[in-house]
């Protein structure tokens, strides 16, 4: 489970013009001689010095996926390390217990069976990590011969070359070869050699096959997608407007002039290098970890993002009147889930899809119904750290806006419905996690250590306490919608497995 940190102090970017000139001159002189925590931090600071502060989304994108020092794209190039597991930076549910992946495989089969799908099936996972989740899913699904007979291709959306190799070894075998293909790379599944596994760097490279039913799994994927942060502020420039005077009237007493307060505006939070002076103070004050190289400032004027994104939903407008309120919006997340919806249910206009089919299962952490705020976090070696420290060597994430995702899916396609989000504890319990754990414990025989590991791992996944994952993590499903059929609740979301 990824850690959290306290909200960072913010700075307002408006300064007297002579201060700004001095600060920019000093920063341009210092950026080349100052000691930065990572090479990526240095290159980002130099770029910002030239072009100005950047949105949080741009900062996250560079830190996570920059080909020269990004967290996911460069990790493991010089060593065999990866971000996952006990020796990495964080641990995910599939790494904690094999039962997690088995139940996701069972959910996929149950949904395929409930929809009575007769077409071919594409299984798609975004951000497969080490491949553990897909491996546990396939090991479970191979027991259902009809489903495996309909499975035409497996797609893995992975930007890291190092992780692709790790996934290839686990899912295809140590001696399997990774071949180049039109979409990216491919190999053969060890559980079913006639099924191809294809790796692509982005979901846009997965063809929208209208003849196939897509089953899409996104586990802890959306939390790593870039976010924009906005703050509600009272405009500082021209905050009041004096009454108009004309040449025919005497100039009024300034004390009697009427003042009209401007309404609040959304201003974008931008990333800027910490000043050299503040960097020295931070280095002396920081005792828990490395001092941040960057900080958040409030844009002194509206930006294109602040003028567009918060206006896309009434949810944001209701918060605007609260001065100092922060909201987080991920347009990439909204666009991606809209793509899921169109693949499953067809587009609003001009869709070639014969009828809705398939499913998307999203498992991640974030609030069920509220707008995420102050959730940007960094984690390294299982400990919280500033997301603005050690750029490229820290995992950066933010809460997922589940309600925003649901709205985006429903707006994108008339052929889908959304179920959830529900707490992970409820979802996994409904899928039979305790019963499966009891089976594995029974198979362990007299090995008390194996029994203990099984017991503690499955309980951690459903524990609703502060140290567990059962309450913080949520599950949400996007399924086909048929106006002429009775509403069906899927298994895990209040429904039962059809017999």
UniProtKB/TrEMBL annotation:
KW Transferase (keyword) present: yes
Stretch forming the signal peptide: none
Localization annotation: Mitochondrion
Enzyme class: transferase
Pfam (any one): Methyltransf_28
Catalyzed chemical reaction(s): L-arginyl-[protein] + 2 S-adenosyl-L-methionine = N(omega),N(omega)'-dimethyl-L-arginyl-[protein] + 2 S-adenosyl-L-homocysteine + 2 H(+)
InterPro entries associated with the record: NDUFAF7 (IPR003788), NDUFAF7_sf (IPR038375), SAM-dependent_MTases_sf (IPR029063)
Keywords: Methyltransferase, Mitochondrion, Transferase
GO CC aspect terms: mitochondrion
One Gene Ontology term from the biological process aspect of the record: methylation
TM ranges: none
EC number of the protein: 2.1.1.320
Any GO molecular function: protein-arginine omega-N symmetric methyltransferase activity
Function: Arginine methyltransferase involved in the assembly or stability of mitochondrial NADH:ubiquinone oxidoreductase complex (complex I).
Similarity annotation: Belongs to the NDUFAF7 family.
UniProt-recorded name of the protein: Protein arginine methyltransferase NDUFAF7
Organism whose genome encodes this protein: Verruconis gallopava
